[in-house]
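Our collaborator T.R. sent over the components below with a one-line note: 'Predict the complex.' Nothing else. No constraints on interfaces, no templates requested, no preferences about which chain binds where. So this is a plain run: every listed entity goes in together, and whatever single assembly comes back becomes the starting point for the next discussion.
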Amino acid sequence: DVKVTQSSRYLVKRTGEKVFLECVQDMDHENMFWYRQDPGLGLRLIYFSYDVKMKEKGDIPEGYSVSREKKERFSLILESASTNQTSMYLCASSLERVPYYEQYFGPGTRLTVT
Amino acid sequence: AQRVTQPEKLLSVFKGAPVELKCNYSYSGSPELFWYVQYSRQRLQLLLRHISRESIKGFTADLNKGETSFHLKKPFAQEEDSAMYYCALNTGNQFYFGTGTSLTVIP
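Returned assembly:
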């Protein structure tokens, strides 16, 4: 059974702080993704990675960066948190770059920036 | 450009009534489509994918390439179906999700 875990369920940070969100998957998946989920906007892709040390921008990468030093771990970094980055952040992984493979999601991190 | 459109943000039906959640997509290639569901306080999870042509929890979805639609249907809604539903398109390079439909089944 695939397990995707995220380091925190809830996080409160101040404006300007550097924020790290960690995601770990235990099924040797090649692909990993970071989304933000906002009411009325659905899921929007921030960054994704098809391999270690590789990253590609999604639809809304501004204000974010990522790191993938190991296959099982994908980190999302907010260099200087802002209030408009208050959101639910979801990490996902999938097996290969093949269309019909589903994505497996973590439980989410609800980030509040004050 | 919006690749996946779910026109209804909120949908309420009575228990036992049929339910249809609409999804339209925009993609020139061969689409791979999915429905994901998120129950209250649970993680987002796959409900069904069009390639499997299966019924999950009584839900079915048929891909209509002519109408570029992948509507989710269930003949008799149950209270436990209340959740947020997302339609998703995989183009091989990227997943695109719709904005979601919140389904409430009224007892």
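Summary for T.R.: Chain A touches chain B through 22 residues (CB under 8 Å).
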